[in-house]
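Form P-L/3: holo structure prediction, ligand phosphoric acid mono(formamide)ester.
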Amino acid sequence: MRHLLSLEHLPRPDLDHLLARAADFKRERGHPPRLPLAGQTWALLFAKSSTRTRVSFEVGIRELGGQVMFLSAADLQLGRGEPIKDTARVLGRMVHGAVIRTFAQTDLEEFAHYGKIPTINALTDEEHPCQILADVFTYQEKRGSLAGRVVAFIGDAACNVANSWAFAAGKLGFELRLAAPRGYQPTAELLARAGGHVHCTTDPGQAAQGADLLYTDVWVSMGKEAEATQRLADLAAYQLNAPLLARARPDALVMHCLPAYRGKEIDEATFEAHAQTIFDQAENRLHVQKAVLNWAGGPEEA
Ligand code: CP
Ligand code: NVA
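OUTPUT (holo model):
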């Protein structure tokens, strides 16, 4: 039994395995040679909104032969104050695996500890490992290995997606440049945990210079809505747009984890010019989730 709680603690061999298996699942879609989750029921327990993560996990579990139930945290007794450790011990007796989207990373870890079933991080305030696995997979599909490349993340560089990118940089050996105002850069403690491949700057042009991949995410992550006005003002100079793209390599890719807010973190023209990549990236969530599910709960991988 395995958990995917963070990219930080995912060993490099497992990361490589997941990327390779995702390619298999993409190629085999529609004619799978086996159904690794046959006879299993998985729970999706979400405390935040989701389109891509929810749908890709629901479809992925079904396509792997499993059953799936979506549980909104607000509808469970959890929403009325039942402790996570009790919820986990109940679900752990009934379902075979859990995919969890929540706020605190420690809540996810507590669930995994008490549930004793494969538990997957579908986004916390700290990390979004499944997203970055799909992003790396997409880059590799289009351009080959990320090793030695330069990735520029522009915007709220202290968010979950940026954090997972930082951990990926240390493991995969690419340079990550984070362009953000000072209050939106990761802590020194997180940078130390990520290893030596991450550089922070307040200058988006400097980050984009010669980059192989430009990446952005929303300026107002889920749970930060009360700060929206301040965030939009603070991050206004950190839009991914044509002048910034002109600083990157001519064949640079543009990615966005979605949902995208045009006129905020990315402009409409840049988004649409790179829509093919961005929606390939979204589709790849499905293939990567299937690799993660198979790795965490499939019999041959146990
Ligand atoms: N990128 C991503 O995780 O999207 P959702 O919030 O729609 O799941
Ligand atoms: N940083 C964003 C990612 C959305 C997929 C959020 O947490 O809302």
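COMMENT: The CA atoms of residues 24 and 287 lie 8 Å apart.
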